[in-house]
Design brief:
Elements: H1 8-11, E1 18-21, H2 23-40, E2 46-52, H3 56-63, E3 71-79, H4 81-86, E4 90-94, E5 104-112, H5 116-126, E6 132-140, E7 153-157, E8 163-164, E9 180-182
Parallel strand pairs: 2-3, 2-5, 5-6, 6-7
Antiparallel strand pairs: 1-9, 3-4, 8-9
Helix pairs in contact: 2-3
The chain binds inosinic acid and magnesium ion.
The site of inosinic acid has 15 residues, from β5, α5 and β8.
Length: about 180
């Protein structure tokens, strides 16, 4: 059954405002993104690099829709406090063991808001000499003033509200919801 309403069983009774993207809508868009990515990379080694934790569900659905050889790895980044984040300080907690040099790197992100995290990661990855570097974001809020590299593939142009589910969290809750809902 498709979940078009927020299930109180899954949220422990906590209310979410509304479902913004239901399961069927997400699945259709992920399928289309898979086709776009398949067409965009005709040859060369493709490494799809998921930025954890937010991208874990999106990445796992997306890679199954890309019909070409590829490899999968992850990045775990931590930014320090509000001040450090605004200065763009990001540390990699897990650094992909896969060699990036000479490969097409597709960074897979849950949502782009200010783009600060992404800007630092893009700079880090560029130093590793990939053949190409592109971004695929499930959601894009289009509020960032400066993006080192804008997303080449975007699932949805998202509203300004705080979204949870399908990997996205609020204080680590709600990542397991099969749909995307707004918190307020
Ligand atoms: P940015 O560096 O401001 O672009 O922040 C991106 C990160 O902030 C995402 O990877 C999410 O972890 C988090 N984030 C931004 N907006 C939302 C939202 O609406 N819901 C959940 N997480 C969000
Ligand atoms: Mg988060």
């Amino acid at each position: 059954m498709l979940s078009r309403t927020v299930s109180p069983d899954r949220t422990g009774g906590r209310k979410l405002a509304r479902v913004v993207y239901d399961e069927a809508t997400i699945a259709a868009r992920v399928r289309a993104l898979g086709r776009e990515i398949t067409a965009a990379y005709p040859h060369g080694d493709l490494l799809m690099l998921g930025l954890l934790k937010g991208s874990f569900i999106f990445l796992s659905d997306l890679v199954r829709r890309v019909e070409r050889p590829l490899q999968v790895d992850f990045l775990v980044a931590a930014s320090y406090g509000a001040e450090a984040a605004s200065s763009g300080t990001v540390r990699l907690l897990y650094d992909p063991e896969t060699i990036l040099r000479g490969k097409h790197i597709l960074l897979v992100e849950d949502i782009i808001e200010t783009g600060k995290t992404l800007n630092r990661i893009v700079a880090l990855l560029r130093e590793r000499g990939p053949e190409s570097l592109s971004i695929c974001a499930l959601l894009h809020k289009h509020v960032s003033e400066h993006l080192e590299l804008d997303a080449a593939f975007v699932g949805f142009d998202a509203p300004q509200s705080f979204l949870v589910g399908y990997g996205l969290d609020h204080a680590e809750d709600f990542r397991h919801l099969p749909y995307i809902a707004s918190l307020t």
